[in-house]
Design goal:
Blueprint lengths: L1 H13 L1 H13 L4 E4 L1 H7 L6 E6 L3 H8 L5 E3 L7 E6 L2 E7 L1 E5 L6 E5 L3 H6 L9 E4 L3 E3 L4 H7 L1 E2 L5 H7 L2 H13 L2 E2 L1 H10 L8 H12 L4 H11 L2 H4 L19 H14 L11 H9 L4 H4 L1 E2 L5 E2 L3 H15 L4 H13 L13 H11 L3 H10 L6 H25 L10 H8 L5 H17 L4 H15 L1
Parallel strand pairs: 2-5, 10-11
Antiparallel strand pairs: 1-2, 1-8, 3-4, 4-5, 6-7, 8-9, 12-13
Helix pairs in contact: 1-3, 7-9, 8-10, 8-11, 13-14, 13-19, 14-17, 14-19, 16-17, 18-20, 18-22
Length: 473
């Protein structure tokens, strides 16, 4: 408790230029203002925030008037929910009128009613650790639901009955999993029980809102915690059914790995490898590809007479399933293509053997990966979960060798912009033809030749083009 008090005091001192000035403006106009939610929770955890959330007794139009002359910029996209946003220097501020909201069982959108008290506003929040406030000015901590105690015990509870909370907004069930993943907290048994009983209510929530929670969960520090909770409560069976499907029943001879546990381990190993990526982490595309890389296995599992089990073409099947799921969750086309490409290519490396690939095969690996090559390195390396240390070391050394070969070829041949040795204009000039299908076919032939043989001189490429054209006649 004392540590939390010291942490929150230090954070309030840091953000004093914002909270004190705003508190005085609202108090002078006869309104309450309180810092609420995540900023209070994270202050007690010793985490800094430049995005600040406030609750107030003022109505939106009054809030907007009080911000004029103080904020650098003001926006009101959330006005229908009672929220006015603004920027002040490096600070992003959102101020929301005290409110209560409830879901119609058949509606995807909440109805909003403004409230009159801070206690009432806090009571409608998702979890007790998010139902704490600091009144400003004066910095009086309000904690009517025991959030400080739950924070100390690292547990997620709802301010009231979880059934009421999840009925008001079923997305809070996803948020429980997300906060478990972000904070590393456990979830109270009664909350888990309510999530399990009410999982079907998530179907009234829009795909976009579910997607946003899933992205935050996957990008959190402890995604395994959140994903396990989604699977155990049955929520994953609705929002991401491919994940629980990985928990294949083992046959009596135990002829295959636990694909579900393997997948969660691959995800964690991909996270550990994120420093290799140009942007570092968290990287949603690489993480989600790691999560989805084996989802084709349940559909392709076959038991063989010799006692083995196969999953032929699970990479191709998995890529198609990934596209379908991500489209249903309303991901962007770029994200869909990036993740599904990684799923489709994640097995390609295993044809490398101990370095048998030709330079042509290495060039194709780079070309097919395109702008996802660095992520493919991460996902492929993460996909080794064997407990056989000698095998793991051998796979790592082999991939080191492949990356070294890619680096050498990239330096020699500009692999990132791999093109034929003749461009379209040169092809038309040499063949004496205009734009058309023949030029495209010739370009494709020269690109394949470039892959197989490496760079050629213009004279060599010209001779090869003319020989190809003669064969087409």
């Amino acid at each position: 408790m004392a540590d939390a008090q010291r942490a929150v005091t230090a954070e309030l001192d840091r953000i004093a230029p914002v909270i004190d000035a705003l508190g005085e403006r609202f108090a002078a106009a006869g309104h309450e203002l309180a810092l609420v939610g995540g900023p209070v929770r994270d202050a007690m955890l010793g985490r800094q925030h430049n995005d600040l959330d406030f609750a107030t007794s003022a109505r939106p139009e009054q809030t907007e008037a009080l911000l004029k002359g103080w904020a650098d910029a003001i926006w009101d996209m959330g006005r229908s929910f009672g929220t006015i946003g603004c920027r002040k220097g490096d600070w992003q501020v959102e101020i929301t009128t005290y409110r209560s909201e409830a879901y119609d069982p058949s509606s995807r959108k909440p109805t909003v009613d403004f409230g009159d008290t801070l206690a009432g506003d806090l009571g409608r929040r998702d979890f007790t650790v998010n139902a704490m406030a600091v009144l400003v000015p004066g910095r009086v901590v309000e904690d009517p639901y025991g959030g400080v105690v739950d924070l100390a015990h690292r547990v997620l509870r709802t301010p009231g009955r979880p059934e009421d909370s999840f009925s008001d907004d079923p997305l809070r069930m996803m948020r429980a999993a997300r906060f478990a993943a972000q904070l590393g907290f456990s979830v109270a048994p009664e909350v888990v029980e309510a999530m399990t009983a009410m999982a079907g209510r998530i179907e009234i929530i829009s795909a976009e809102r579910v997607r946003d929670e899933l992205v935050k969960l996957v990008c959190a520090p402890y995604p395994r915690l959140g994903l396990r909770l989604l699977v155990e409560t049955g929520l994953a069976a609705i929002v991401l059914p491919e994940l629980p499907a990985l928990a294949l029943e083992r046959d009596e001879h135990h002829r295959h790995k636990d694909v579900y546990e393997h997948t969660l381990t691959v995800l964690e190993q991909a996270i550990d490898l994120e420093p290799r990526l140009p942007g570092g982490g968290p990287d949603f595309v690489a993480r989600f590809a790691a999560l989805m890389h084996d989802i084709g296995k349940p559909r392709t599992r076959r038991f063989v007479d010799d006692g083995t089990v196969t999953f032929h073409h699970h990479d191709v099947v998995g890529a198609k399933m990934t596209r379908k799921r991500m489209k249903a969750l309303r991901f962007s086309n770029d994200e869909i293509e990036a993740v599904s490409k990684l799923v489709e290519l994640h097995l390609r490396f295993h044809g490398y053997g101990s370095g048998e690939w030709t330079d042509s095969a290495v060039r194709r690996y780079v070309r097919d990966a395109g702008d996802q090559l660095e992520r493919l390195h991460v996902v492929t390396r993460a996909d080794c979960t064997t407990r056989n240390q000698r095998k793991a070391d051998r796979l790592r050394r082999t991939y080191d060798d492949l990356e070294a070969r890619i680096a050498r070829l990239r330096e020699q041949e500009e692999l990132d912009s791999l093109r034929p040795d003749l461009d379209g204009n040169q092809i038309m000039e040499i063949l004496g033809v205009g734009p058309g299908r023949q030029v495209g076919a010739a370009y494709k032939y020269l690109l394949e030749l470039r892959m197989d043989r490496g760079p050629m001189s213009e004279e060599e490429a010209r001779a090869a083009l003319l020989a190809w054209a003669a064969e087409q006649e």
